[in-house]
Amino acid sequence: MHDSAEDRRKFRGHLQDKRVLKYLREMIRICRFNNRRWVRMEYERAWESTITINLTAQARMIRSCIPHLAREGAGRIVNIASTVSKIAVKDRFAYGMSKGAVLTMTLSVARDFIDRGIRCNCVCPARVHTPFVDGYIAKNYPGQEKEMFQKLSQTQPIGRMGAPEEVASLALFLCSDEAAFITGVNYPIDGGFLNLRD
Question: The pTM is what?
Answer without folding.
Answer: 0.78
